[in-house]
Predict the 3D structure of the following.
Amino acid sequence: MKVNGTHYRSLWWDDDKAALQIIDQRWLPHEFRIQQVDTLQDFADAIVEMRVRGAPLIGATAAYGMALAAKIDPSNAHLDTAWEFLDKTRPTAINLRWALNRCRAHLLPLPEADRPAAALKLAHEISDEDVGINHSIGQNGLEIIRKIAAGKKDGEPVRILTHCNAGWIATVDWGTATSPMYQAHDAGIPIHVWVDETRPRNQGALTSWELGSHGIPHTYITDNAGGHLMQHGLVDMVIVGTDRTTRRGDVCNKIGTYLKALAAKANNVPFYVALPSPTIDWTVDDGVAEIPIEERQEREVTHIQGLTDDGKIGVVQVTPVGTPGGNPAFDVTPNHLVTGLITERGVCEASAEGLAALFPDLSGIAKSA
């Protein structure tokens, strides 16, 4: 997508510098900064500190991390060490381990001398695949929006609520939940997006930054406003992303997603999840019982970053001194609250049967795990 008229991906390889470049998302939406990632520690820090964030983007970043590891030392032992080092960075998003496993499985059968070039080539492929997957998700989600729009009065927008940022900066490009929005807007379908602030890191501000850059009408709202809007008939559909989805369709996403799903169910609002296939964990059935939920630093809850009146980025404390903060980063929405899963292969019900029908080539992983 574009930033000030220039097309960017969330990460890209600079051939001249022979290094990965990332958008450092800690400073968005107020400053646009690019960082070069040079060491394995840089890769780990970028993931842990959420310089890169979003399950698909974390996976792509990890693939480039393995490419660097292969360049430094292509031995089996070093690749295993790099795998373990990067795998520890964030526990919930399955794309991280998916990318690490894919890289290691691809490299270990090769002669050591061939591994550096092969690893970099695979990282490029994983990034390009992500772009294609997300574009296809957008095409399939566009048809849902188009059907809702057909029942609207002329010029009345389809009103979409989204939570967190499942946009292009959470992927390599296009985004997951935002891809249908971009493609509907580009197709001339009027839409209006309700953007949840998504405490504690206010990632809705990133979504607002994205949508505003693309010219899509939107309103930034508090996390607690969604149910009220649904009660009053002001939401036509919800689209969110996912960091891990079980084989039966339970969805793990940013904390607060479960509450939105409950409100949507109570008010007969369709609740869709934009789901790229690498985010499906075929080895897990019960999301509530089996998915590890990352507990992040309490400072993210007790403090908040923003733009001060003098135009500088600053941090302030919002809680009394000494008050502890709890910070579970994700929650799980059971499949019975999900209207449908929007994947790159089509839309299916959130169930083991629905997912297996779309991905018969992948669903067998559960049986062999």
In short: The chain has two domains: 2-128, 138-368. The domain at 138-368 is CATH 3.40.50.10470 (Rossmann fold). The longest helix spans residues 115-150. Residues 82 and 99 are 13 Å apart (CA to CA).
